[in-house]
Amino acid sequence: MNLPALILFISVFGVTFYDFYLLKRSKVELSSCFSSAGITLVFSLIVFLIGALIGFAIFGDDNEYWTIVSLVLVYGIFYFRFKGREIKKGKIKVEKPKKVKKRSLKENLIDVFAALCGIFLYKAFGLMGVGALGIGYGVYSYLNKRYNKYISVIAGILAGIIGYFLIIIIYLQIQS
Fold it and tell me: 97 and 79 in contact (C-beta within 8 Å)?
């Protein structure tokens, strides 16, 4: 068995068995444990294959970097699935999403400005500029909830610039 197939087997069945273990440990009905584990198996296999397609599109088929993309997708999606699930008295309860607050005009303008900058960066620097913009916007939106707007904007800009150079370094390492 080659390495990507082994990684596929371990990651997909590992997530499935972990889901079954969590439910069985919490004294959920056995039929519910099997059905949830079956859904997890099918869904994780589909996510792994989508990650493989994305990885092939990005890195080509002459290497096995696509397994990294697939693993990040599988474990990332199921981390948030398991994190948002609470089991009480043998019943699975999913946290309800909180009510979304109305956005101010400033926040909407920042989003439009970020989208226009993304288009400009794509034309000027290619896809790597858009990735850097995504990193910067993610840092901005994360810090905007905790700190004031100036700190979050400056941190977002710095994270975008650092992210751009990290993406370039990774790209150059892969090319050589």
Answer: no
**Under 8 Å CB-to-CB from 74, ≥6 apart: which residues?**
11, 12, 15, 44, 47, 48, 51
pTM above 0.85, yes or no: no
Q: Which string of b and e fits 33-68 if b means at least 16 CB within 10 Å?
A: beebbeebbebbbebbeebbeebeeeeeeeeeebbe
| Contacts with 27 (C-beta within 8 Å, 6 or more apart), sequence order | 90
Dmax over Cα atoms in the chain, in whole Å?
Answer: 57
- What would the pLDDT profile of 125-137 be if each residue is shown by its tens digit? 676 777 777 888 8
Q: How far apart are CA 12 and CA 166, in angstroms?
A: 30
Q: What span, in angstroms and rounded, lies between the C-alpha atoms of 28 and 150? A: 48
Mean pLDDT over 117-144 rounds to 77
Task: Give the tokens for residue 169.
Answer: 């370094």
Give the pLDDT band (50/70/90) at residue 114: confident
What mean pLDDT do residues 60-71 have? 76
Q: Which residue has the tokens 């896809």?
A: 127
pLDDT band at 84 (very low <50, low <70, confident <90, very high): low
The domain limits of the chain are: 3-94, 105-175
- CA–centroid distance for 46 within its chain: 15
